[in-house]
């Protein structure tokens, strides 16, 4: 049994909302969602786990990543974590890499996931355009060549967001987090495994089996997990709705913070 993911934040009261972060360099639960906690903890017990390889969580070895996908590893770690916290049923929200883990968890343990919120999720997305996308290339480049630099992090955020000048302060913190040597080693192994597997797990083949009521949130200008790939999920998931934000890239929870918090709260509280 692998170590569980570490819950970086467990705050608030009410129905449990688990939020899974994306997979960019220096990513963590708090880096993704800290700005949303004041609004969401008024209504929910919010659990923010760092996924394996990121933040304060453990680093899967190269052999682990060769044997199983990062999504499979994350699902096991997440369910172990929630068991340890005594959480049986929960709402689940995931962005990008975390969106893939959220889809896989909803398929693996449908009796535990009450409602599902997916923000440009990997795996469930089937693009019409070329891959890797511009955002995926930016992630692959970050640790290559001369290694991480503040300029490369600014360039990365420029691809992730529709208005990068608004998020200049984010670059320094993400850059510093990306310098952790164990995270760098994990990222090289993760990218190598990603290439061997030819991308994310093809969860799009099974999204029609999702039982949880699902809200899709997408930035129209997302250059990482592009909006065209949403059509398959919109067609195949039984109980689904889609909200698209113009002038928004890959980080809906940051770029459209107030609308994100309102939509998520209303959706999860709706009977």
From TrEMBL:
Ranges for domain AB hydrolase-1: 15-256
Taxonomic superkingdom: Bacteria
Transmembrane segments: none
GO molecular function: monoacylglycerol lipase activity
One Gene Ontology term from the biological process aspect of the record: acylglycerol catabolic process
CC annotations in GO: membrane
The name this protein goes by in its record: Alpha/beta hydrolase
The organism of origin for this protein: Streptomyces dysideae
């Amino acid at each position: 049994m692998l170590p569980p993911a570490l819950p970086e934040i467990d705050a608030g009261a009410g129905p449990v909302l688990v939020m899974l972060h994306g997979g960019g360099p220096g990513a963590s639960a708090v880096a993704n969602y800290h700005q949303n906690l004041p609004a969401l903890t008024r209504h929910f017990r919010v659990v923010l786990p760092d996924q394996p390889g990121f933040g304060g969580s453990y680093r899967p070895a190269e052999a682990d990543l060769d044997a199983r996908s990062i999504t499979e590893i994350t699902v096991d770690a997440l369910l172990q974590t929630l068991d340890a916290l005594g959480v049986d049923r929960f709402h689940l929200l995931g962005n990008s890499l975390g969106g893939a883990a959220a889809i896989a968890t909803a398929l693996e343990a449908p009796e535990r996931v009450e409602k599902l919120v997916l923000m440009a999720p990997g795996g469930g997305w089937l693009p019409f355009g070329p891959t890797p996308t511009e955002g995926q290339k930016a992630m692959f480049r970050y640790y290559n060549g001369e290694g991480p630099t503040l300029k490369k992090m600014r360039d990365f955020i420029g691809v992730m967001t529709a208005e990068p000048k608004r998020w200049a302060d984010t670059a320094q913190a993400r850059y510093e987090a990306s310098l952790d040597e164990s995270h760098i080693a994990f990222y090289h192994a993760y990218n190598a495994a990603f290439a061997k597997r030819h991308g994310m797990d093809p969860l799009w083949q099974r999204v029609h089996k999702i039982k949880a009521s699902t809200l899709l949130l997408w930035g129209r200008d997302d250059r990482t997990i592009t909006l065209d790939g949403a059509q398959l999920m919109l067609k195949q998931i039984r109980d689904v709705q889609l909200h698209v934000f113009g002038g928004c890239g890959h980080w809906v929870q940051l770029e459209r913070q107030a609308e994100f918090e309102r939509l998520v709260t209303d959706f999860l509280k709706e009977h």
